[in-house]
Specification:
With about 300 residues, this protein is an all-alpha fold. It contains 16 helices and no strands. Helices cover about 65% and strands about 0% of the residues. Helix 2 runs parallel beside helix 4.
Length: about 300
């Protein structure tokens, strides 16, 4: 058995260069991956080591899957290469029984356009591995009921911006929804269903953050005084800017807070620019705040 990557790559290169070429379905598949799909020898090595039975697929099934994605779904050669390298088990799925029903559901029911579906499938080919009846329908019903995503286009917007929502467990999502609804500083304080809906639509990726990280970030903002000088407090700030919850405390928030404090500037009296600006812009912002403070001080 060949175990070394370099040795395997050399072996594969010699095999593909051998003439006359033996008649063998596995070798036919190798040539198809190389000549039709356009995989390089290192890419072939990666594919085979990740999914060894890729060479055992029926050449007819292999060609049919390739044609379905490149001709019917209009994936480019590079997109199809990315898809099979990250999710080679796609060749095991039946086109009429698995792939077509899922694609039809995503386009006709959820509302994906052809270009947006192509982008999503290239990044998250797992979307095609999920059952419409067992996964998609229950999850969409859950989102409509618990996140109030019941207007036309709501579910599409969430799925386009955060496809992993589909395979997050119900318990995982319920824990976060409870946190979002809990008053600050123990949650985000989103009591109104309309606020929760807007919050998720504005930044669906917030559903992918761990509950522990969410709790720590809200606590950090609360202890820093964020929102204390605004009408709706911290909950108002977070409801209008849910992406604030995605910033790292040790890598971004705390270092910037400490720099501000060193200059005698408190977070609660500052614009939220200190959270979102790029480093060079933050530096200029801090210099300006310091100058203003010195002028008025």
């Amino acid at each position: 058995m060949v175990t070394n990557n370099l040795t395997f790559t050399v072996f594969l290169s010699l095999l593909l260069l051998s003439t006359p070429f033996p008649s063998n379905p596995k070798l036919e598949n190798l040539v198809f991956f190389r000549d039709t799909v356009g995989l390089s020898t290192p890419q072939l090595t990666k594919l085979i080591q990740k999914k060894p039975n890729s060479l055992s697929i029926s050449p007819i099934q292999l060609k049919a899957t390739h044609d379905y994605f490149t001709l019917d779904l209009k994936l480019s050669s590079n997109q199809f290469q990315r898809l099979i390298l990250s999710f080679p088990q796609i060749f095991a799925y039946s086109i009429p029984n698995n792939l077509v029903p899922t694609v039809t559901y995503l386009t006709q029911t959820i509302g994906f356009s052809a270009p947006s579906l192509t982008r999503s499938l290239t990044r998250y080919p797992q979307l095609l591995s999920l059952s419409v009846d067992q996964t998609y329908l229950p999850k969409i019903q859950f989102l409509e009921q618990h996140l109030h995503l019941n207007r036309k286009g709501d579910v599409l917007k969430v799925m386009k911006n955060f496809p992993p929502i589909v395979w997050l467990s119900f318990d995982n999502l319920l824990a976060k929804i409870e946190f979002f609804s809990t008053p600050t500083p123990h949650g985000c304080g989103l009591h109104n269903p309309a606020d929760l809906r807007s919050f998720v639509l504005a930044f669906p990726q917030v559903l992918g953050l761990s509950t522990d990280n969410l709790q720590q970030t809200v606590r950090f903002y609360h202890e820093s005084g964020l929102g204390t000088t605004t009408k709706n407090g911290l909950s108002g700030v977070l409801s209008s800017a849910p992406h604030f919850l995605a910033y790292s405390i040790p890598r971004r928030l705390n270092p910037r807070k400490q720099r501000m404090l060193e200059h005698g500037i408190e977070v609660k009296y500052s614009s939220t620019k200190w959270i979102t600006d790029k480093d060079e812009v933050f530096d200029r912002y801090l210099d300006q705040l310091t100058a203003d403070f010195d002028f008025h001080g």
